[in-house]
Amino acid sequence: MRLSDLAGLPLVMFRHGYDLRTFTMTACQRAGFDPTIAIEGGEMDAVLGFVAVGLGVAVVPATVVANRTDLRVTPFAQPSPSRVVALAHRRDVRLPRAAAELRATLLSYLDTEAAAGTLPPRTRRRYTAVPA
User: Cα separations (Å) of 22 from 36, 110, 128?
Assistant: First the structure.
């Protein structure tokens, strides 16, 4: 599916101020159309719930629908919309255990997927280790 295929479809949109709303609006406009907004949801679960009951379609990260069997997931053709997600922390402060575990899990995932050749296109791992 190309992003332009969404033109004219009822789109379930995130509320104003939600980063995915801005991302989706910008991506649609770059594809040459203004989306038809059917309904707005305040949170990811609400948006997915509206989609599940047939009120429209939504543009969401693949990770939030990976295990949803109640929704049909259609990836976008390349080049697909993308955004930068980053993990940042202060260099001069030791991370709490939970944050350190999250960082280790994310970096391990990126390393594993890179080794398997299954990272999404344009995904890069940039990290400079600092002593804990």
Answer: 14, 26, 30
Mean pLDDT value across residues 63-71: 84
Contact between 44 and 60 under an 8 Å Cβ cutoff? The reply is yes
User: In the chain, what is the greatest distance between 2 CA atoms, to the nearest angstrom?
Assistant: 52
The DSSP secondary structure of the chain, one letter per residue, reads: --GGGGTTSEEEEEPTT-HHHHHHHHHHHHTT---EEEEEESSHHHHHHHHHTTS-B----HHHHTT-SSS---PPPSSPP---------TTSPPPHHHHHHHHHHHHHHHHHHHHT-SPTT----------
Q: pLDDT tens, 5-57?
A: 889 999 999 999 888 898 889 889 988 999 999 999 988 999 999 999 999 99
pTM score: 0.64
